[in-house]
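Researcher: Please translate sequence to structure tokens.
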Amino acid sequence: MKQLVGGTLGGSAEALRTNFVSEKSSAEYAALYRRDGLSGGHVILLGPGNEQAARAALSAYPGGLQVGGGVNADNADGWLAAGASHVIVTSWVFQAGRVDFERLAELERRVGRERLVLDLSCRRRGDDYWVVTDRWQTFTDVAITRPTLERLAQSCAEFLVHAVDVEGLCRGVDAELVEKLALWSPIPSTYAGGANSLADLQLVTDLGQGRVDLTIGSALDIFGGSGVRYEDAVAFNRRISALR
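Model: Translation complete:
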């Protein structure tokens, strides 16, 4: 299991920046989340040779984790059968910089809207946030707007949105992006990128108005970070869940 700096993901091996490499297996982390009742975590295959580790995690926490990375219409059913609660899809539904609605409809028919998550990870260009694909290096022609989110929400259960420019840097969340997701998305969204403290957990909770969840990674002590203790994050999650 690795924690990467998102903006370097598609570059050369020399340019790729890795925050942390764990000695624990994916299954051990999955078992930890299962023990603490943390559902909805993401198992992302960042390249070839990771399928065995992904399947081990899903087996350790069946129904508790989402899986993404190379998911398409041919293999989505297999990942659900392996124990994923949802499949996360991005590049496969974007062709020539645009959403391929025929492919999206095919995925929806195969797995069901309720088990499909669209990855709309984005980078800022000018005043807008634009969806990026191909390991977050290629800008599409799709901006994060209210009409875009409303249209795509008809075909999926949730959005996963990495703020790529701040992903893995632990310099704070992109509050503007969180606010836009809360205002514009008619379905739940999970934001990822930059979180470095429990204050960021509270910030996303407040700005997200109960409609945006936060993925926190590099700042956690179990991932080599120093900003957030895992036990404190679990306790925070339980407090918020009890209020909803």
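Researcher: Any highlights?
Model: Residues 1-9 have pLDDT under 50 and may be disordered.
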